[in-house]
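Hi everyone,

Forwarding the result from last night's run.
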Amino acid sequence: RIPGTEVPVGEWFTKTWRIGNPPNSDKEWPADCYMKWIHGTELEGAFDVQIVCPAKLAPRQTADFSVRARCPSTPGSYEAIFRLFTPDDRPFGPRQFLSVTAVPAPRAPVPAATTTTTTTTATTTTPTPIASPSTSSEATSSEEKGKQWGW
């Protein structure tokens, strides 16, 4: 058995077995044979399914059997055992193991602290005196005087 692959708690993952009909076999595996969970940890998504063989398998041929499962929510090591069955539910072939090590979920990276610098520049303006109203006869109306004073 291979030690369990590390998977974050609660995460979905896919386990694939490449299984072959042995070269010394004298029987073809039927297309409707399947693999299912028989013992061990009841992983969500994996313990109540039948993984059907995609085609008949002659001796020396292989097929991939995949199951999608959710990693347990508590850290630790888990194992589930699967087995091949004929269409009439007779087990055959060796047991297949799914080993997983549930590890704490990685924490989201904390954004680096950012410093914002605000620069304020104060500008002082010296008032510019407005010229006094002209005393000439050309600027005698009150409207004209208002224009000169900026009203």
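Strands lie at 5-8, 12-20, 34-40, 50-52, 62-70, 76-85, 91-103.

Cheers,
N.
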